[in-house]
Design goal:
Its EC number is 1.2.1.38. This is N-acetyl-gamma-glutamyl-phosphate reductase. It catalyses: N-acetyl-L-glutamate 5-semialdehyde + phosphate + NADP(+) = N-acetyl-L-glutamyl 5-phosphate + NADPH + H(+). Helix content is 26%, strand content 23%. It is an alpha/beta fold and 325 residues long. The chain folds into two domains: 143 residues, 3-Layer(aba) Sandwich (Rossmann fold); 157 residues, Dihydrodipicolinate Reductase, domain 2, CATH 3.30.360.10. It has a seven-stranded mixed beta sheet with strand order 10-11-9-12-15-14-13, with helices on one face. A six-stranded parallel beta sheet has the order 2-1-3-4-8-7, covered by helices on one side. Strand 14 and strand 15 form a beta hairpin. 46% of the residues are buried.
Amino acid sequence: MIQVGIIGGAGYTAGELIRLLINHPDVEINFVYSTSNAGNAISKVHQDLVGSIDLKFTDTINSKVDVLFLCLGHGNSVKFLEVNSFSEKTKIIDLGNDFRLEKDKVFKGKTFIYGLPELQREAIKKANYIANPGCFATAIQLALLPLADKNLIGNDVHVNAVTGATGAGVSLSETTHFTWRDNNFSYYKPFTHQHLGEINQSVKQLQNSFSSEILFMPNRGNFSRGIFATVYTDFEAPVEEAKSIYKSFYNDAEFTFVSDAALHLKQVVNTNKCLIHLHKHNDKLLVTSIIDNLLKGASGQAIQNMNLMFGLKETTGLHLKATYF
């Protein structure tokens, strides 16, 4: 059994990891680390796990676990690894943004591979250290990579994407309170969102000539989970050609699918899927991409990466069904 350690165990992404891993046939959770909850039952924080797990949070680590998931706030993974050492055999999957960019991928002799399976599957299989992609970045990259692969992004890309309240994390802020979020809608970080760095990096990995702008407007939705992204750019060929390009690019993808019908968010909530739909209007191609921000955008994709790293079937422990009604 693969022995797993989780750091930052009280947050949303850690909760999702625990829910998935307790039912993973090849995994045993060795410890869940949380200094603020040490000694408390995990089910006291993640209350849906009453009767499902008997472990308590701990403030000590087992440095010899097989794989370590870092579920820390952005910038805190580096701080944690600076003062905590693990076995050379311990694989690390960071769900934060500390190691996603090329300039940050090497840390204390460890090289972190960017963990988007649809782009880097073979590299992930050989990796010991993974930088798990951001949630917005996952949805937007999966909308753009088939075009980049054919060198077809010749103009600016316009992105409008809405995320649920869980995208802001478990810590409260003015814009996460129910009274603010309910029956409300707003944008934030217009054109400057931190995920743009990794999106541009991946697009240029496939289309080195890409020099246009990705104009990204992130929005806060008044729902709990999910990302609904619409992306459009110039595309001269018929929509059927675009469909052929996308279906071919994702032919071997376990979780990314091209739909002929228009999409709605409930199709992917509580799954590890990304669904994509294509629509042509005059010379513009509209690409809709939807994911669950906590699963395909975080913890589900992290387990997908773990499966690849350990030679398991990519879908192991991730056969999830959408909560449709």
